């Protein structure tokens, strides 16, 4: 069985660098990629049934837009480079969701780009990269 790398992707320059890095590593080893796009989503338990229905509809529309505008083109471009790839969109806390995806897919590694947030807010509240480095059950590569 070949390796599987989960690549965090949001169409930012940092995530494109992470994807390029993953492609460079996957090509010689035959590893496949799972490009993961995570949309932040906070659960509201105090909404009315009508509000929950509207929120679910917006969530579905947002996922459809992300698939069409963001993931479909990057999957096609990656396949053209000879890499086996699939994509997934999820809602949730980014670090927790990437860990969940990696565990469920038996991935060998999570690869993500560093956004460059190094200020006080990043140190106090944390970042996806630091959360993954501390909590991931698989290796994490943070691409500068």
Folded structure, characterized:
This protein is an alpha/beta fold. The chain has a single domain (4-143), classed as HUPs (Rossmann fold). Helices cover 51% and strands 21% of the residues. The chain contains 5 helices and 5 strands. It has helices spanning 13-29, 49-80, 94-104, 120-125, 128-135; strands at 4-8, 32-39, 85-91, 109-113, 139-143. Strands 3-2-1-4-5 form a 5-stranded parallel sheet, sandwiched between helices. Helix 1 (13-29) links the parallel strand 1 (4-8) and strand 2. Helix 3 crosses helix 5 (128-135). The longest helix has 32 residues, at 49-80. It is globular, with a radius of gyration of 16 Å. It starts with a strand and ends with a strand.
Characteristics of this structure?
144 residues; alpha/beta; Rossmann fold; five-stranded parallel sheet; 5 helices
Count, helices: 5
Rounded mean pLDDT score: 87
What is the CATH C-level name?
Alpha Beta
Major pleated sheet: 5 strands, parallel
**Side-by-side strand order of the widest sheet:** 3-2-1-4-5
Alpha-beta content class:
alpha/beta
Instruction: Supply the CATH architecture.
Output: 3-Layer(aba) Sandwich
Unreliable residue stretches? 120-126
Q: Give the % helix.
A: 40-55%
Q: What do we call the CATH topology? A: Rossmann fold
N- and C-termini, Cα separation: 29 Å
SS strand fraction: 15-25%
CATH homologous superfamily placement: HUPs
